[in-house]
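Worked example 3 (structure in, sequence out).
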């Protein structure tokens, strides 16, 4: 994906797109590479062109996932508005390409096309909404329910079967759910022993009882 084709920038006027093409840089990161670390000085807005990124905070030796970003996602907005360093760490969850747009470049583009300012505000508002939903889930759901909801969100029909695809490692999944790997493993085994799903291959499960998975997740229907 080219940077001008990402949702944040598509449809901007010609002047803003010329500035973007002329002043943004592409960076490639292998799986597990550090994109930026909490406390480091900002280099601009990172726009994910392909791959995926985990944004995490560390506390008492454990990492907690703040948000995940795939193609079209953005990273590093907070220092753009508030100044200061990055408040969290971004790590490539797969081989990833990002466009880096310097702060001054974004300001120039906002002048050239004010629509960009509203898009940045909308993206920040959606990020806040996502964080509120994550905090709510951590506060009101136990790990079993969070895991079931995570699996349910990644379940789709493959022919006559319902298949869930869980990318990444069990440790990464635990970080996203706000727990530890051993707890995730225990609940995955419980779902299999209960006949709710069965393992097809690494990270892939056939859902045998979709109603039971929905009930475990606290979902309606």
């Amino acid at each position: 994906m080219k940077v001008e084709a990402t949702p944040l920038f598509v449809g901007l006027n010609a002047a803003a797109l010329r500035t973007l093409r002329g002043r943004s840089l592409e960076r490639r990161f292998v799986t597990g590479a550090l994109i930026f670390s909490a406390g480091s000085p900002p280099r601009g807005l990172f726009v994910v062109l392909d791959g995926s990124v985990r944004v995490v905070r560390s506390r008492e030796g454990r990492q907690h996932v703040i948000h995940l970003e795939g193609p079209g996602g953005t990273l590093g907005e907070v220092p753009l508005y508030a100044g200061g360093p990055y408040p969290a760490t971004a790590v490539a969850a797969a081989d990833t390409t990002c466009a880096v747009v310097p702060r001054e470049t974004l300001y120039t583009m906002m002048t050239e096309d004010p629509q960009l300012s509203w898009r940045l505000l909308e993206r920040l508002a959606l990020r806040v909404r996502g964080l509120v939903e994550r905090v709510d889930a951590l506060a009101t759901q136990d790990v079993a329910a969070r895991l079931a909801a995570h699996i349910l969100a990644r379940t789709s029909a493959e022919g006559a079967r319902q298949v869930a695809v869980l990318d990444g490692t069990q440790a990464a999944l635990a970080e996203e759910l706000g727990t530890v790997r051993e707890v995730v493993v225990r609940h995955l085994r419980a779902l299999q022993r209960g006949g709710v799903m069965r393992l097809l291959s690494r990270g892939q499960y056939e859902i045998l009882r979709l109603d039971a998975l929905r009930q475990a997740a606290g979902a309606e229907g």
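Notes: The mean pLDDT is 89. The helical segments are 14-23, 77-82, 103-112, 115-140, 143-153, 170-177, 181-193, 210-217.
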